[in-house]
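Researcher: I'd like a candidate sequence for this fold, 248 residues long. If you have to choose between options at a position, lean toward the conservative one.
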């Protein structure tokens, strides 16, 4: 990439998108060359080298396919990237080996540290549950951060030889015990006035450990977004999780 990076934002008028546009505008080494929203023709993305994609799960795969086909790196904050969609994206990237795509379940540095700490703690505790809270306009549950946290915890538990999380519940007709994500109980709250919050609660005989992160304003995501923009070109192929750019 050149010294200055040309950036387009897809989903530019959304809450995250508008914040990302401002962050790119304010950065000395980035140029905002395109703002796109639903229904817009992405075309050549305004000549962007990197696209920041912040839309909705149903739109994201086609937007990223468009970027990859045109050799544009992508930083993706949209959730909904399940194993099937990731596999399809890997196939697309195989035809464009110089293109990098970052799928970031969370851009907040504190959230990435929370996930890393939770993964470290997971092998020491018999019990663990995840509780995430977001604003009620969020269309999917659980959050991408919660799903990613559960997957990291599950991997650590398997490596440590731990069995299933203990739970004697046999009757739960209304789903009070929440979802199971990779075997880890996950609960999603949707409350007006909140932005993005998560806690991971661990339990062992005679003790408890709670790891919590709170984003009170979307500005907390912007350092991570800008890090992704600056570094995605150094990482061809698919990267899931901004932590891989930060050495976590």
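Model: Candidate sequence:
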């Amino acid at each position: 990439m050149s010294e200055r990076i040309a950036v387009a934002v897809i989903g530019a008028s959304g809450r995250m998108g508008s914040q990302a546009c401002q962050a790119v505008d304010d950065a000395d080494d980035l140029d905002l060359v395109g703002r796109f929203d639903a229904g817009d023709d992405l075309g050549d993305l305004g000549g962007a080298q990197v696209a920041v994609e912040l839309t909705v799960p149903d739109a994201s795969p086609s937007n990223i396919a468009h970027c990859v086909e045109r050799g544009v790196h992508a930083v993706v904050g949209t959730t909904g990237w399940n194993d099937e969609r990731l596999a399809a994206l890997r196939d697309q990237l195989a035809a464009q080996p110089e293109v990098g795509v970052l799928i970031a379940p969370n851009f907040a540095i504190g959230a990435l540290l929370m996930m890393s700490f939770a993964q470290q703690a997971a092998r020491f505790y018999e019990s663990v549950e995840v509780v995430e809270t977001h604003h009620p306009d969020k269309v999917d549950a659980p959050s991408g951060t919660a799903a990613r946290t559960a997957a990291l915890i599950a991997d650590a538990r398997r490596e440590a030889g731990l069995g299933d999380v203990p739970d004697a519940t046999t009757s739960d007709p209304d789903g009070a015990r929440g979802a199971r994500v990779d075997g880890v109980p996950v609960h999603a709250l949707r409350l007006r006035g909140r932005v993005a919050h998560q806690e991971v609660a661990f339990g062992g005989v005679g003790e408890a450990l709670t790891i919590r992160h709170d984003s009170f304003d979307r500005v907390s995501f912007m350092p991570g977004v800008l890090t992704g923009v600056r570094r995605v070109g150094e990482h061809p192929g698919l990267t899931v999780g901004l932590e891989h750019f930060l050495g976590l």
